[in-house]
Write a structure and sequence with these properties.
26% helix, 152 residues, alpha+beta, eight-stranded mixed beta sheet
């Protein structure tokens, strides 16, 4: 069983640093450096059998707007709904803080995942350090869609 913990501020950054850096920087080649957001963000860390297997970061990005980034999952645990769980937890936290919108900057290889989670593209693609990103957002004031088992 995965045990998720939300940790606010620098303690959350420090708890997830080694895992996050191993996935984002070492495996995927993304820049992963501490920034001013880490001090105010809510970090989520998922632990299974004593090992961190996932991480994500939620932060205020404006009035009624939150951002999610640095979502990463251990390779063996991908496509097991772990990242979906992180998004749902962050979306619920944002709604609890009166947010109506979640924004994300998504690398091109993760766009399909975010589309499946009801995010939509909001602008042109852009390139940063050789990686193509898309700005996407989700309206948290809309009722979540039903997947699979719903019957009319």
């Amino acid at each position: 069983m995965i045990k998720f913990k939300m940790i606010t501020g620098i303690q959350g950054y420090e708890k997830g640093y080694e895992f996050r850096h191993g996935i984002l920087a070492d495996e995927m080649g993304y820049t992963d450096e501490k920034d001013e957001i880490d001090d105010i963000a809510t970090h989520i860390v998922g632990v299974e059998n004593g090992k961190i297997i996932c991480y994500g970061r939620l932060y205020p990005a404006g009035e009624y707007v939150y951002g999610i980034d640095k979502v990463c999952v251990n390779k063996a645990d991908r496509k097991q709904y772990v990242a979906d769980t992180i998004l749902r937890a962050f979306e619920d936290r944002a709604v609890g803080n009166m947010a109506g919108i979640i924004i994300v900057s998504v690398p091109s290889d993760a766009v399909e995942f975010f589309l499946h989670e009801d995010y939509f593209k909001t602008g042109e693609e852009y390139v940063n350090e050789g990686i193509t990103y898309y700005k996407m957002k989700k309206d948290l004031t809309k009722v979540r869609g039903c997947r699979g088992g719903c019957h009319k």
